[in-house]
Every structure is written in structure tokens, then in C-alpha cells.
Amino acid sequence: MDVYGTFWALVPPIIAILLALITKEVYSSLFVGILVGALFYSGFGFEGTVTHIVEDGFISVLSDSYNVGILVFLVILGTMVALMNKAGGSQAFGRWASTHIKTRVGAQLATILLGGLIFIDDYFNCLTVGSVMRPVTDKHQISRAKLAYLIDATAAPVCIIAPISSWAAAVSGFVEGENGFSLFIKAIPYNFYALLTIVMMVSLSLMKFDFGPMAKHEKNALAGDLFSYKDRVAREEEEEGAKKGKVIDLLIPIICLIICCVIGMIYTGGFFEGTSFKEAFSGCDASVGLAIGSIIGLILTILLYLVRRVLSFKDCMECLPEGFKAMVPAILILTFAWTLKAMTDSLGAREFVATMVKENASGLMGFMPAVIFLVGCFLAFATGTSWGTFGILIPIVVEAFYATDAELMIIAISACMAGAVCGDHCSPISDTTIMASAGAQCDHVNHVSTQLPYAIVAAAVSFASYLIAGFVRSWLIALPLAIALMIVTLLVMRAVTSDKAAQA
């Protein structure tokens, strides 16, 4: 059976996702997906299956320089979080916030604001916002599932509309023969999923309501159970903290990390060799830049704590293995997810989607942004990668629309980005979703199951918005209509859920 470039190429990740949602166990589910992909590739031969999993899978993804850079970045971030906790910076911020943030609404809005401010990179966003806001949200009895949603919804959705981010750099790099950075800027007002997700978060916080499984988690949190079900693992060590820690022991390391990561990224883009800032950022190697920036940020943080005498050198060194151990679950899931993507690549998933989009592009021009949004959602959901989805779809869109309709091309590129972020947001094998779970210290399957209904609502409104945009061809009309539609949808859902609660 020849499965290359057919729908069968997407079967392994679909199996992995379904198993993860059914069994609530992510490691074995991902491995089964990897196994199915290798079996398809080898024609169900034993030797070919084993060598494809080991050589072309695990060894290949773990020897990829980009992936190794991301793993280095994660381990250092984990170490910095351990340092900030041990120095008492996180606890000091929690104490400061408790005197300034008085309500659950305030705590949620503060989390959203901080997530919006850390727009450099989604990994950095997830882990930093999680470590900073956990003490605050815990104090106001906000469930870890809700915190994970707020982190995840301000990671990729914020990065994809921030011109100075690793995501902007990635998208710009996928647009061949065009000024990718300029197209990225023009596409921002049409990026409905990202913009509507932010509107949704703020609206839910101000309206003080939740729906789906999240409502149950929030109800449990108000009763004192922040974790719900098997996720309930108390992190007592976070409450200990050094008493002499101050807010600057949290703020200075984070600010240093942001500045160092930006400098690291523009360094890899050739900024210090005469390249302009914009070109350096769009042409940077995010993996190397983030690794360089985080290493320098870590050194500066250790020096700060030594000078301030809040930690001894021995204490700082003890945080290195602690940070690594904290990141082991995320690293394991990332490794499995990358290997699963390698299986789908070897089966021709990219070619299947490219053929499908090209064959259906003619005659449906007004509907194409909405169709491309759905294709992006499905592809990112199945493969767990936004950037891989950009790489597949954006060159196809540029080729299909460049000579016919420049404005529709911008809308379609936005639909690619929005669909990729949406699918990535929903997928349990997405690296950003995994990082959000790690940042909130929330059970991964709990995070996915509570976030999914929220992401689906935002996706449905975004789909309708792309139908409108495909015909009106103006964001000045389409964007206000999209925001109004989202707010009306949430008001209707609040009325429905309150009626059900009253009947119960």
C-alpha cells in the first residue's frame, strides 16, 4: 500500500491525539502514533519500523541543531525559575501583588497583561508568566487549568501579532520573493483568531463566567482544590521561598532575560555586522539566539544573587539540576512530538496538503481565506506545529494569489497564520501547549480538555470572520464585525449557562 502523499500520512498524529484525549496519558499515546507512522513507512516490516523510529525519529530530532537549541533554552529557563523561587523573588512578587491585586478578575487581567508584554517568544512567555503569576492566581483561587489557558492564549496568539518576535521572523522567512516582514505587518489586522482569543480572554474575565470542563475546574478551585482530579499535586516547595527575597529578585532576571534574548536573536541575524534591525530580526535563528540570550541571562542572574547575598554559589549551582528536572516532562513530550512530526514528514503530509489546497483554489476565491483557515487548523492540530504549518501553506498561498489579488493574498496569509495558531492551540502534541502546562504546573491532559471548548468557540467566530473578509476585502469592516460577533457569542453563552445553572 503506497501511503506517501495521501490522507494516510495524517493518520498517525490523529491516532496519537485521540488516544491522548481518551486515555489521558500522553507519553504512550504519542509513542503509538510514532509506531503507526513507522509501520506505514516501512510497509509493516519489523526491521524497517525499528530503524525508522530510532534513526530517522528520535536520533534525528535530538541531533537537529534547532531542536537542541530549544532544549538548551528550556533547561536554562527551568533553572532560572528554580533560582527565582529559591531566592524568594516569586514569593516577594506574590506578596506585593496581594496588596495591589484584590480580586480574581484583577489576577486574571494581570496574567493577560503580563502575557501580552512578553511577546518575544512563546516558550519564554509560557514559562515566565507561569512562574510569576502562579502565587497570585493561587491566592485568588484560580484553577491551574484556567491559569494554563491564560498562559497558552497569550503565548502564540500574542507572538503571531507582534512584529518583534521569533514568530514574525519565522513567518517572514517563509515568504519567498516578497518582503515577508511587510506582509506580516499588513496581515496583523486580519489575524482574527489571535485577536479574538485576546478579546475572549478579557471578556470572560470581566463577565466572570466559564463554560465546559473549565467551569468545573473553577468551581473546584473556589472550594480550595486548584488542581482537580489526578492533577492535584501540591508544590509545597514553592511556598517556602527565601524570606529575604525582594521583587527585584524576580524583575531584574526577567528584564535581563528579555534584553539578552532580543540581543541574541538580532546577533544571529547579523545586526552587529551592519544589517538593519528589521532585517536582522526577520532573518535571525531563534533557536541559537534564545540559547545565547538565556545563557547570558542566567549568568547575570547568578551574579545578581551573589552580589545581593540572597543565595550562595552552592545554592545557585544546586538549582541547575533542579531546573533540568522540572523540565524533564516537557522535554520528553517535545521529543515524542518532534519524532511524530518526523514520521508524518516521511509519509508526505506536506505534499498531501499542498496538492489538496492547489486543486481546490480555483473558483472559490472569496471563500479561500476561510478554507485556508480550516486547513491550517487541521494541519497544525494533527502535526502539533505552527511553524511547520506556515512552512507548508504560506508559499502555496503566495504562489496562488500573488498574480491575481494582492489584498486577498494578505487575508489568506493571515488565515494561514491564524489557522496554524488555532490548531497549535488545540493540539495536545503542540510544543506551546506543552509549555503552557509546564508553566502553570497543570496536568497536560487537563489543560487540553479545558482549553479545547474555548479554542473551538474562537475558531468558529474566526471562520465566520474570514468568510466576511474574503468578500469585503477590508479589515476596517471585517475586524469590528468579528469583535462584535465574539462578544455577542459570549453574551449568549453566558445567558445559556446561567439558565442551565438556575434550572439545576
Could you tell me the number of beta strands?
Answer: 0
* Portion in beta strands: under 5%
Count the DSSP helices: 25
Which H/E pattern describes the elements? HHHHHHHHHHHHHHHHHHHHHHHHH
Query: What's the average pLDDT?
Result: 83
Largest sheet: none
Helix content: over 70%
Radius of gyration, rounded?
22 Å
The assigned structural class equals: mainly alpha
State the end-to-end CA separation: 54 Å
Please, what is the oligomeric state? single chain
Shape: globular
Parts with pLDDT < 50 across at least 5 consecutive residues? 230-241
What does this structure look like?
It is built from 25 helices and no strands. With about 500 residues, it is mainly α. The longest helix has about 35 residues, at about 315-345. The radius of gyration is 22 Å and the shape is globular.
Strand and helix map with partners:
Elements: H1 11-23, H2 26-42, H3 46-62, H4 65-87, H5 89-100, H6 104-117, H7 122-139, H8 144-153, H9 156-159, H10 166-174, H11 180-187, H12 192-207, H13 213-222, H14 236-240, H15 248-268, H16 277-282, H17 286-308, H18 313-346, H19 349-359, H20 368-383, H21 386-401, H22 406-426, H23 431-440, H24 444-472, H25 475-503
Task: Give keywords.
mainly alpha, 25 helices, 504 residues
